[in-house]
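Subject: design request, 191 residues
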């Protein structure tokens, strides 16, 4: 892929590393090519302007609390996940962890092509997004925080939690759990 913008001199491409059934956060953090891209971006002054959490789906259950006259929703992200981070001039960075391995990609153009998990694979959809701005150093810090994590299906740290935790960190909001829903003034139903 040809890159333009601030990172045109930075290598691009798809990196997919198959590995063991248990993935350590340290192994992901230490990915040489990913770290080189982040280092080059820092030198060029690249930063991020938002993020999207991709997943197979999201279950939302709405509830009304009469005592407080308040609506809430409980969101649960379902299935395989990935995170797409929008840079300020050099395309997208996509990070994804499944039982098949760790995948990252630096791409230009539409993020939509990143939502297909291979030919005939699962199509992921945007289940949450953020326009919060953040630095390459923030991403590095979040990867560093996950170095002690061990990801495996059937455990507290399932593969999907990798992207969810990154999204929560860069967006500074929770993608899952109970959230209060705003209602329109004069209405008793959620918007």
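Subject: RE: design request

Done. Sequence follows.
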């Amino acid at each position: 892929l040809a890159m333009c913008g601030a990172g045109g001199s930075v290598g691009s491409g798809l990196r997919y590393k198959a590995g063991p059934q248990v993935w350590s956060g340290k192994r992901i953090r230490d990915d040489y090519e990913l770290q080189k891209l982040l280092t080059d971006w820092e030198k060029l002054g690249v930063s991020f302007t938002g993020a999207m959490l991709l997943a197979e789906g999201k279950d939302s259950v709405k509830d009304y609390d009469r005592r407080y006259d308040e609506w809430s929703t409980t969101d649960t992200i379902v299935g395989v996940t990935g995170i797409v981070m929008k840079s300020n001039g050099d395309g997208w960075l996509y990070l994804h962890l499944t039982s098949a391995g760790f995948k990252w990609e630096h791409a230009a153009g539409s993020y939509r092509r990143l939502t297909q998990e291979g030919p005939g694979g699962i199509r992921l959809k945007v289940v949450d997004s953020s326009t919060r701005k953040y630095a390459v150093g923030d991403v590095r810090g979040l990867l560093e925080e996950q170095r002690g994590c061990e990801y495996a299906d059937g455990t507290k740290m399932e593969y999907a939690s990798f992207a969810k935790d990154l999204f929560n960190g860069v967006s500074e909001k929770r993608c899952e759990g109970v959230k209060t829903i705003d209602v329109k003034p004069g209405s008793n139903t959620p918007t």
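Strands lie at 13-17, 23-24, 47-65, 70-87, 92-98, 101-107, 125-130, 134-135, 150-151, 177-181.
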